[in-house]
Design a protein that fits this description.
This protein is mainly alpha-helical. The protein has 5 helices and no strands. It is globular and about 65 Å long. The model has no long low-confidence stretch (mean pLDDT 85).
Length: 125
């Protein structure tokens, strides 16, 4: 009986430590929710739907923030065309991250900034 309890305890410890190690700020974690949002996938769990909304909201907020920086601050700014839709920005972020699988463990927001800047850099004269 003691061996069974020890086995169950060890299994729980391993499972809990595996869950604790998942980085919810990473691109690999957020990308599944971004894809679901971009593809209008039906999400049955409310938590998944909330995460999909969080992905789109973060991208929208970062994009808005970047478009408010003056074009002189090239590293921080973005100048998308006025008629670019949020869906297009989300897809640009997804494509940027998917093209860099070696960076999946990096921070999602950092990669989002890079993606938006690469897609719509500002030019100064």
């Amino acid at each position: 009986m003691r061996a069974v309890i020890l086995g169950i305890t060890m299994g729980l410890v391993v499972a809990v430590s595996a869950l604790a190690q998942e980085d919810k700020d990473s691109a690999s974690y957020m990308l599944r929710y971004c894809r679901a949002a971009a593809n209008n996938e039906p999400l049955t769990r409310p938590a998944d739907a909330a995460m999909a909304g969080m992905c789109v909201g973060m991208i929208d907020g970062i994009s808005l923030m970047m478009s408010d920086f003056p074009p002189e601050e090239k590293e921080k700014s973005s100048c998308p065309p006025s008629k670019v839709k949020l869906e297009h920005i989300v897809r640009a972020v997804i494509a940027y991250i998917e093209a860099r699988p070696e960076r999946m463990n990096e921070n999602f927001k950092t990669l989002t900034i890079e993606a938006i800047h690469e897609a719509w850099p500002c030019t100064t004269n």
